[in-house]
Specification:
Strands 4-3-2-1-5-6-7-10-8-9 form a 10-stranded mixed beta sheet, sandwiched between helices. α4 packs across α5 and α9 runs parallel beside α12. By secondary structure, it is an alpha/beta fold. It has one domain: Ribonucleoside hydrolase-like (Inosine-uridine Nucleoside N-ribohydrolase, Chain A, Alpha-Beta Complex). The longest helix has 17 residues.
Length: 332
């Protein structure tokens, strides 16, 4: 039976280094367990498939102590069902699921994967007020929480309105913006979807007082798994990797019923870079830039803007992609 939502937290240390990026995980296992990074994931999973890849990556990363995963934007009940089923696949029903502000009842392209999944069957906690769960988790934590956001952010805007103090007790890591490069690496920026889909929310987030780290399209917009990298994930026996590929097939058929099967590469998996940035800035060139969100959804460098740590270029994208594959497959 589904339990009511409550938040219980244990004392965990959070190591922040450089521009809000955690230091390397200690070699000693006992020390590492005590210094795992407490995180909340806010996601619009069930739209673009990259959120599904990102959630699997998060769950396969031992550096993180995942406190809560919350659905955001659109049909948040549909999205929460995907989160809950993914957590069951991962045997991580210790993680609470939050239902964000519901803006529609339209479902989405991965609906068939959860067609028979009732959120009430989730063995862990389901927080029907996901915004309250975000606020309570941050405020109850003895150490700063890393809030990873990989979608538009009406939940986060609402959380800041309910309790602005959360910005003093968390750091923000997000997949947002387009600073110098646009989609597909084109040499001019675009109004990136996670910003332009809710400009008011993005403006609230980008003017809050928390330290911020983002991967804009300049870096996350270049990541795809192709060739042997993709084949390793597609052929893996790891349950989470299998769930990702199953969802990818469903998502592709929803977009194009005549899509050639099997796929030979991933689409751009933007959101995985935000998960990586929450643990390390390795393989990336970071710049601290003053960022302003324009009314038309652009993320512009402007001296009046908030200073944000931005992943602006790869120093070794191939190594990141290999690392991602290793994490997702667990060697299987």
């Amino acid at each position: 039976m589904r339990r009511s939502c409550s938040v219980s937290l244990v004392v965990l240390a959070l190591t922040l280094a450089g521009r809000g990026v955690p230091a390397a995980e200690p070699a000693d296992d006992k020390t590492a367990a005590a210094t795992r990074i407490p995180v909340i994931l806010d996601t619009d999973i069930g739209g673009d498939i990259d959120d599904t890849w990102a959630l699997a990556f998060l769950l396969k990363s031992p550096e993180f102590d995942v406190k809560l995963v919350v659905s955001d934007s659109g049909d948040t009940v549909y999205r929460a069902r995907i989160i809950a089923r993914m957590l069951e696949v991962a045997h991580r029903t210790d993680i609470p699921v939050g239902v964000g502000i519901r803006q529609s009842t339209d479902g989405g392209p991965q609906a068939s994967w959860v067609a028979d999944y009732d959120l009430a069957r989730y063995p862990g906690k389901v927080c029907q007020d996901g915004v309250a769960a975000i606020v309570e988790t941050i405020m109850a934590a003895p150490r700063p929480v890393t809030l990873i956001c990989i979608g538009a952010m009406p939940n986060i805007k609402a959380a800041l309105q309910r309790n602005p103090e959360i910005a003093q007790r968390a750091r923000f890591v997000g997949m947002h913006g387009s600073v110098r490069l646009g989609y597909g690496g084109k040499p001019t920026p675009d109004p990136e979807a996670n910003v332009v889909n809710d400009v008011a929310a993005a403006r609230a987030v980008f003017t809050a007082s928390w330290p911020m780290t983002i991967t804009p399209l300049d870096t996350c917009g270049l990541v795809r798994l192709t060739g042997e990298n993709y084949r390793k994930v597609a052929a893996s026996s790891d349950p989470l990797a299998r769930a990702v590929i199953e969802n990818y097939r469903i998502w592709r058929r929803a977009a194009d019923p005549k899509a050639k099967e099997p796929a030979t590469a991933s689409t751009v998996i933007f959101d995985t870079v935000a998960i990586h940035l929450a643990r390390s800035g390795e393989w990336l060139r970071m710049e601290e830039l003053p960022i302003v969100i324009s009314a038309d959804g652009f993320t512009r460098i402007d001296s009046r803007g908030k200073r944000v740590a931005c992943a602006m270029a790869w120093t070794d994208q191939a190594q990141f992609e290999r690392f991602l594959v290793e994490r997702l497959t667990g060697g299987r």
